[in-house]
């Protein structure tokens, strides 16, 4: 893969990860990550800028109006709150700051508010800005880009063969078009999903290769944290071994991508987190993680340094 070879299909990927002794597999993924990316580690943080009452029926989500989860609900935050949060994270060495909002897609009126938030952040801070506001078109994405949004995030969530069992109100094709629209207005894109939603190992391999087929270079890897009130509240959690195997799948299928530790990683013990970072996780969302308990940024930064990563090194993707 370092020489340009790409894994061709699900069976080949499964043969590699299931047929290789774990220690050798981990070492191989480690060498692949460090050869292609060096010791650079990409950090970002998010703010839940609009919460709850989402019309979509995503079965994992606390913010869906279809389920009773006790989730906080509020409209778009004011500039003071978002700018202060951006400045705080910048002071801790975090590279990117993202506005994340519930809802199917932003209206033009909402987009105008988001533009004001971004402009105020850019006025007072040098932190890179990202956005994750749902499905979007060039009409809404262009003013965000002009205001200073560099990256747009829209998760594919799971394997194509499994997605329809998780959500019926929009499709992965809708999500793909959003990413294409973001690229057309000059944004980079970020897209990943959640493992442990009831999919099998083969579907996790399918998902990893699906993201590779889209050319994704920043992949948030969430681990389901079952939320009471959602249809997935009783899903059995993945074992640490299965999580590490998934990390290997995503690294091997996406050698040039930043694999980004995201929601749910707090469920993992410290040793498993360290192993995942050694294998190939070379980015992370730190700080607040929407509706679930977040990690502490200072502790995260210490951990990344302990694993011989440099959070100040340049990191970028196309």
Automatic annotation (TrEMBL):
Its BP terms in the Gene Ontology are: biotin biosynthetic process
Quote the InterPro entries the UniProt record gives.
Aldolase_TIM, BATS_dom, Biotin_synth/BioAB, Biotin_synthase, Elp3/MiaA/NifB-like_rSAM, rSAM, rSAM_sf
Q: In which pathway does it act?
A: Cofactor biosynthesis; biotin biosynthesis; biotin from 7,8-diaminononanoate: step 2/2
EC number(s) recorded for this UniProt protein: 2.8.1.6
Query: Required cofactors, per record?
Result: [2Fe-2S] cluster; [4Fe-4S] cluster
Q: Which residues bind [4Fe-4S] cluster?
A: 54, 58, 61
Q: Which Pfam family, any one of them, does this sequence belong to?
A: Radical_SAM
Q: Residue ranges of the Radical SAM core domain?
A: 36-265
Alphabetically ordered keywords of this record = 2Fe-2S, 4Fe-4S, Biotin biosynthesis, Iron, Iron-sulfur, Metal-binding, S-adenosyl-L-methionine, Transferase
**What does the entry's cofactor note say about binding and number?**
Binds 1 [2Fe-2S] cluster. The cluster is coordinated with 3 cysteines and 1 arginine. Binds 1 [4Fe-4S] cluster. The cluster is coordinated with 3 cysteines and an exchangeable S-adenosyl-L-methionine.
Q: Which reaction does it catalyse?
A: (4R,5S)-dethiobiotin + (sulfur carrier)-SH + 2 reduced [2Fe-2S]-[ferredoxin] + 2 S-adenosyl-L-methionine = (sulfur carrier)-H + biotin + 2 5'-deoxyadenosine + 2 L-methionine + 2 oxidized [2Fe-2S]-[ferredoxin]
**Domain of life, source organism:** Bacteria
What the entry lists under CDD domains is as follows: Radical_SAM (cd01335)
Enzyme type, top EC level: transferase
Residues at which [2Fe-2S] cluster binds: 98, 130, 190, 260
GO molecular function per UniProt: 2 iron, 2 sulfur cluster binding; 4 iron, 4 sulfur cluster binding; biotin synthase activity; iron ion binding
- Oligomeric and partner information: Homodimer.
Protein role: Catalyzes the conversion of dethiobiotin (DTB) to biotin by the insertion of a sulfur atom into dethiobiotin via a radical-based mechanism.
**What does the similarity note say?**
Belongs to the radical SAM superfamily. Biotin synthase family.
Q: What is this protein called?
A: Biotin synthase
Species in which this protein is naturally found:
Porphyromonas cangingivalis
């Amino acid at each position: 893969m370092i020489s340009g070879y790409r894994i061709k299909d699900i069976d080949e990927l499964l043969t590699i990860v299931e047929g290789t002794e774990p220690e050798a597999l981990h070492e191989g993924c480690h060498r692949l990550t460090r050869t292609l990316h060096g010791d650079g580690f990409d950090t970002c943080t998010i703010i839940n800028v609009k919460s709850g009452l989402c019309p979509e029926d995503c079965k994992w989500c606390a913010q869906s109006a279809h389920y009773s989860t006790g989730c906080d609900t509020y409209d778009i935050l004011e500039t003071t709150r978002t700018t202060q949060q951006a400045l705080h994270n910048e002071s801790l060495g975090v590279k990117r700051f993202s506005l994340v909002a519930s809802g199917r897609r932003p209206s033009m009126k909402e987009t105008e508010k988001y533009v004001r938030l971004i402009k105020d952040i850019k006025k007072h801070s040098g932190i890179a800005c990202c956005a994750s506001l749902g499905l979007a078109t060039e009409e809404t994405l262009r003013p965000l880009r002009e205001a200073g949004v560099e990256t747009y995030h829209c998760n594919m969530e799971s394997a194509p063969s499994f997605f329809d069992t998780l959500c019926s109100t929009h499709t992965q094709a809708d999500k793909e078009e959003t990413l294409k629209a973001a690229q057309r207005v000059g944004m980079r894109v970020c897209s990943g999903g959640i493992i442990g939603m009831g999919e099998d190992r083969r579907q996790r391999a399918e998902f990893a290769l699906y993201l590779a087929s889209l050319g994704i270079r920043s992949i948030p890897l969430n681990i389901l944290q079952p939320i009471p009130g959602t249809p997935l509240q009783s899903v059995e959690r993945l074992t640490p071994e299965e999580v590490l195997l998934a990390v290997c799948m995503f690294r091997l299928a996406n050698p040039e991508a930043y694999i980004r530790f995201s929601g749910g990683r707090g469920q993992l013990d410290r040793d498993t987190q360290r192993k995942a970072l050694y294998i190939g996780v070379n980015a992370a969302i730190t700080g607040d993680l929407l509706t679930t308990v977040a990690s502490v940024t200072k502790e995260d930064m210490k951990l990344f340094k302990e694993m011989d990563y440099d959070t100040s090194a340049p990191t970028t993707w196309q």
